[in-house]
Amino acid sequence: MLQIYFIRKNQEKVLLGLKKRNFKKLHLINEILILDEKKKIVQNVLNKILEKENLISKKIGEIFSFSSYNNDDSQIKSLKEKSFFLKKERKRINIQLEKISKILENKLNQIPNIPDEKINKNYEKNEILFQEGKIHCSITNPLPHWELSKKFCLFDSNLGTKICGSGFTVYMGKGAKLQRSLIQYFLDQNIRASYKEYSLPYLINEKSGYATGQIPDKENQMYFIEKNNFYLIPTGEIPIMNCYRDRILTDLDLPIKATTYTSCFRREAGSYGSKVRGLNRLHQFEKVEIIQITTPDSASYFLKEMILHVKNILKSLNLPFRLVRLSAPDLGFSSSITYDFEVYSIAQKKWLEVSSISNCTNFQSHRLHLRYKTITGNIEFCHTLNGSALALPRIMAALLENNQTENKITIPKVLVPYTEFDHIK
To answer: Each residue of 30-89: pLDDT tens digit?
Structure first.
């Protein structure tokens, strides 16, 4: 989260960044600063009460040290009466301080991260940075992936609906093998690039969701298990980042690079229509995630490294893709800057997002209490980066559609050692 000292020191910058995001609750900034001043005043009153209590306790101790002390000593009684009054007052002030702190924290939790300065120009419009790969299909009227699935028996959304409900699907035969092969291929590519693999829980507690910024911002989009107070993860970023919660690293430990494969669960309330047909949007989907934890000075460099890494994976799959820098209003709650990779769907004639790569600066690390010790011995907050490498459903959709002929689907060469077949008939 944004820290109060940062807001106070950079009030104009914060307000400008929130305006870029089209954030509607700008009044919260002024309320936060007023509450912070009020908190300081109340804290000062509490400190003075504690000082008085300590002085009285010290004085009583001095009186007790004299052998002539009398239990009926009026001075002792007076001091004890003052001490009793101060304790009652301290309790009242503590309750007041806790109430202010709670309101202040609630308001701070509503403030998203500030957009990067690179988003100064045309910040309300996504910017296409580059496009690679030939948009081509060998047949005149390519079928969308949901029709190809029926033709080649690859996945069945009706079975998913029967078992659970709409927004779920069942992969079968070569469809299941292709998805599993993609997962393994992505993990292998990440591991070769020095990302350490983790296998993680798919359930998280509230503290974990709060630490990465999904709670309270995206709480309504997450599946909640009321009996246990657990949430199903919407992304592998949450459990993998929480592995480093409440840690103090050294600058020699950084960067930390980690990867994980998980199922992801999102309610996607209100999603319907052609945009969600087939694999375009699911309530449960598979994703391979990468994260990095860096120093502030090196975060931009490693963000570029992550972008290049995902770019190379997409190139190896021979898919047409483009890189888009998101506008400020489209940024995620914790993100300062986000780059989306999109692949082209030849049958749907549109671009599909398959990876979002973000720098969250120190926004998450404040919530995570994730810090590092510099060479000089100072304790600083880390920067956190995350990205998909890659999300499976839309990659599957693009691979099926872009590689189809009249009677088969060709498998990219890099996947053949994993699938053990080079086409689907």
So the answer is: 999 999 999 999 999 999 999 988 888 888 777 777 655 555 577 777 888 888 888 999
Q: Flag residues of the chain having pLDDT under 70.
A: 66-72, 121-122, 269-275
**CATH number of the domain located at residue range(s) 117-424 in this protein:** 3.30.930.10
Q: How many of the other CB atoms lie within 10 Å of CB of 408?
A: 13
CA-CA distance, 244 to 410, in Å (whole number)? 42
Terminal Cα distance for the chain, rounded: 52
Cα(225)–Cα(204) distance, rounded to whole angstroms? 10
Contact (CB, 8 A) for 316 and 414 = yes
Torsion of CA 334, 339, 340, 341, to 10 degrees: -140
- Scored b (16 or more CB within 10 A) or e, 103-138 reads ebeebbeebbbbbbeebeeebeeeeeeeeebeeeee
pLDDT reported for residue 72: 53
Max distance between CA atoms of the chain, in angstroms, equals 109
Tell me if the bond preceding 390 is cis, omega within 30° of 0. Answer: yes
Strand partners, 355: 341
Q: The tokens 């049958």 sit on which residue?
A: 347
Token representation of residue 224: 């909640």
Among 286, 311, 298, 295, which Cα is nearest to 193's? Answer: 311
Radius of gyration of the chain (CA): 28
Q: Are 167 and 197 spatial neighbours (Cβ–Cβ below 8 Å)?
A: no
The structure's pTM equals 0.91
Tokens of 228: 């246990």
